[in-house]
């Protein structure tokens, strides 16, 4: 039996303090009310009851999930062809394209989102371009489209990189075998390439959906407060209202939703993989 590496102890302590302790505090806040003294607390589930019985909060939750799903679908539809093109390019071109995708992520996400305000605002580049094309005065800022555009722009690199990784690791001899068996390019894609790239798609969906459903500064900047999502509600409860207990309860609800989403996506991927192994596809 190997001796436990002592060098890992500082990392475990750091993880417990920086990751587990905040989550534990949020969990405690979500099911308690502060008593008369600082160290006095009473157990309660009223914060969860308040959330699930208020139609406004439920509407915001469904809106957040809907926008996150739309963002994820758009990222898959746009990201897969880009990842496929990169994977089929020369090695030198692959490095250039991957660098072009990752370089914007080196800039802070908040700064990149602020840049879209100048592009979408009245008199901006996009509105001027649409006016030249004959669309007239089109309102771009403070719309659902602006919020989704900001989310897709910020999260699509994660989708592209994950799918590209799966496609790059694919055994190219399988494509040759498919061609030898008489399959055309469409059949090869549907029966060989797409199934083998699904793990990358699943990872990309996870990396896009989870931050999109809880995002708060993108709808705040590009939505102008008109598209209040669940992340904005949590921020508002902690910073503006000062209801830490209720904000913690919403955070725990979102954590459960995210864990369930990850479980369902992974389960679907495992079931699909098992079916492929059984059928030999």
The termini sit apart by: 41 Å
Beta content: under 5%
**Which series of helices and strands comes N to C?**
HEEHHHHHHHHHHH
By DSSP, the count of extended strands is: 2
Which segments are poorly predicted (pLDDT under 50) over 5 or more consecutive residues? none
Q: Can you summarize the main beta sheet?
A: 2 strands, antiparallel
CATH architectural designation:
Orthogonal Bundle
The Cα radius of gyration reads: 23 Å
Number of helices: 12
The dominant shape is globular
**What is the percent of helical residues?**
over 70%
Question: The CATH topology, please?
Answer: MetI-like fold
- How are the strands of the biggest sheet laid out side by side? 1-2
The whole-number mean of residue pLDDT values reads: 85
Sequence-ordered SSE layout with sheet pairings:
Blueprint: H1 9-30, E1 32-34, E2 41-43, H2 46-53, H3 55-87, H4 91-102, H5 109-120, H6 125-132, H7 144-168, H8 173-180, H9 185-213, H10 217-222, H11 230-241, H12 244-279
Helix pairs in contact: 1-12, 2-12, 3-7, 3-9, 7-9, 8-9, 9-12, 11-12
What does this structure look like?
This protein is globular. The longest helix has 36 residues, at 244-279. The chain has a single domain, classed as MetI-like fold, CATH 1.10.3720.10. The protein has helices at residues 9-30, 46-53, 55-87, 91-102, 109-120, 125-132, 144-168, 173-180, 185-213, 217-222, 230-241, 244-279; strands at residues 32-34, 41-43. It is built from 12 helices and 2 strands, in the order αββααααααααααα. A two-stranded antiparallel ribbon has the order 1-2. With 281 residues, the protein is mainly alpha-helical.
């Amino acid at each position: 039996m190997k001796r436990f590496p002592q060098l890992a102890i500082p990392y475990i302590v750091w993880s417990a303090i920086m990751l587990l302790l905040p989550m534990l505090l949020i969990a405690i806040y979500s099911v308690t009310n502060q008593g008369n003294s600082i160290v006095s607390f009473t157990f309660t589930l009223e914060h969860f009851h308040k959330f699930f019985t208020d139609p406004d909060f439920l509407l915001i939750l469904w809106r957040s999930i809907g926008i996150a799903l739309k963002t994820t679908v758009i990222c898959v539809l746009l990201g897969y062809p880009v990842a496929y093109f990169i994977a089929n390019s020369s090695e030198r071109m692959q490095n250039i394209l991957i660098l072009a995708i990752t370089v914007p992520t080196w800039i802070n996400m908040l700064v990149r989102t602020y840049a879209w305000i100048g592009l979408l605002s009245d008199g901006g580049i996009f509105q001027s371009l649409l006016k030249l094309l004959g669309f007239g005065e089109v309102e771009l800022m403070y719309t659902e489209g602006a919020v989704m555009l900001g989310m897709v722009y910020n999260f699509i690199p994660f989708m592209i990189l994950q799918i590209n990784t799966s496609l790059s690791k694919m055994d190219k001899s399988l494509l040759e075998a498919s061609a030898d068996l008489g399959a055309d390019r469409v059949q090869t894609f549907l029966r060989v390439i797409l199934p083998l790239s699904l793990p990358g798609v699943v990872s990309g969906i996870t990396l896009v959906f989870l931050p999109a459903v809880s995002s708060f500064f993108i709808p705040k900047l590009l939505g102008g407060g008109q598209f209040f999502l669940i992340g904005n509600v949590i921020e508002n409860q902690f910073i503006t209202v000062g209801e830490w207990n209720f904000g913690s309860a919403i955070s725990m609800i979102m954590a459960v939703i995210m864990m369930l989403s990850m479980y369902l996506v992974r389960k679907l991927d495992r079931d699909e993989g098992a079916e492929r192994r059984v059928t030999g596809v």
